UniProtKB/TrEMBL annotation:
Gene3D superfamilies: 3.40.50.20, ATP-grasp fold, A domain (3.30.1490.20), ATP-grasp fold, B domain (3.30.470.20). This is Glutathione synthetase. Its EC number is 6.3.2.3. The gene is gshB. It catalyses: gamma-L-glutamyl-L-cysteine + glycine + ATP = glutathione + ADP + phosphate + H(+). Keywords: ATP-binding, Glutathione biosynthesis, Ligase, Magnesium, Manganese, Metal-binding, Nucleotide-binding. The keyword Manganese applies. Residues 130-315 form the ATP-grasp domain.
Length: 324
């Protein structure tokens, strides 16, 4: 694809100091953008300001390199008008998907007519990972969202083993496997209800998770690649952040069916970079739209350039805007 002129790109993400460059997808994307000549800025979500009808960000120009501990260099802070001064905003801060996150989507939505925001902030707000996935319940394991202990007990009795997890958690945090005995289930429900105001998710346990939890990346609705994440010893969680390991993989017919079913809707919503999770080659569990990861491992196993695919998709979106 023919590249557009070098872009000015503002990246809304977490602090650069904490980035693990060996596996961080945002850093990988930034390296690719810099290689194309794009001018990069970094800012945090709290750096956003709305004033006189404009959305501003106190941002710093940044250069990146693949040297851990010396992986970035900032310039002097600048006050950017995100509608007038930049071509693209990458909304890439990690969850929690809380009111701060939601507020940032509302602010960024106000620049969408002037600047491309990836992923579309309104679509991100309306597609939390463990709720948007319910649109594709036909591909999911038996699932319940509740705060009610009696409902959880009934669900456990029906399915034998279950997994309980927070509705807006990430990176495998606070994911619990409950066996047939239901030991401590009442205490666990009490803990969830005391810790979070929203309901939690309960799913039938899928034994196939021992063989891996596949992360499939879709770029503008098309499959870009996948990795299989294998749980560590004594774990059901396969997230790389909690000790899972990555392995090369191919997609099953069922996984291709899942991707084909949701791809057009992802593209329509402006969800350009999405990661879905599938257990045992057939059970969809999440659609990750806030800050998907996994592309570094995918590229390492497959010899692909997923970051480049993302920039190509951004160029295509910008070209379509110009044509319109």
């Amino acid at each position: 694809m023919t590249q557009l002129n070098p872009l000015t790109v503002a990246v809304q993400m977490d602090p650069m100091e904490g980035v693990n460059i060996a596996g961080d997808s945002t850093f990988h994307i930034m390296l690719g953008g810099q290689a194309r000549g794009h001018r990069l800025y970094h800012y945090l979500a709290p750096d956003l300001t709305y004033r006189d009808g404009r959305v501003l960000a106190k941002a710093r120009p940044v250069k990146v390199q693949k040297v851990q501990g010396d992986h970035f260099a900032f310039g002097e802070p600048e006050l950017l008008d995100l509608g007038r001064d930049v071509d693209v905003v990458l909304m890439r801060q990690d969850p929690p998907f809380d009111l701060s996150y939601i507020t940032a989507t509302h602010l960024l939505e106000r620049v969408q007519e002037e600047t491309l925001v990836v992923n579309d902030p309104a679509a991100v707000r309306n597609a939390p990972e463990k709720l948007f996935v319910l649109d594709y319940a036909r591909f999911m394991p038996p699932t319940m969202i509740t705060r009610d202990l009696a409902e959880v007990r009934s669900f456990l009795a029906e399915h034998g083993e279950i997994v309980v997890k927070p509705l807006y958690g990430n990176a495998g945090n606070a994911v619990f496997h409950v066996g047939q005995s239901g030991a401590n289930i009442s205490a666990l429900v009490e803990l969830f209800n005391a810790s979070w105001v929203e309901p939690f998710m309960v799913q039938a346990f899928i034994p196939g998770v021992a063989q891996g939890d596949k992360r499939i990346v879709l770029i503008d609705g098309e499959v870009a690649g996948a990795i299989n994440r294998i749980p560590g010893a004594g774990e059901i969680r396969s997230n790389l952040a909690v000790g899972g390991s990555a392995a090369r993989t191919e997609l099953t017919d069922r996984e291709l069916e899942i991707c084909a079913a949701m791809g057009p809707e992802l593209k329509r919503r402006g969800l350009l970079f999405v990661g879905i999770d599938v257990i045992g080659g057939e059970w969809l569990t999440e659609i990750n739209v806030t800050s998907p990861t996994g592309i570094v491992s995918i590229d390492a196993f497959n010899g692909t350039d997923t970051g480049g695919m993302i920039w190509d998709a951004i160029d295509a979106r910008l070209a379509a805007r110009v044509a319109a």
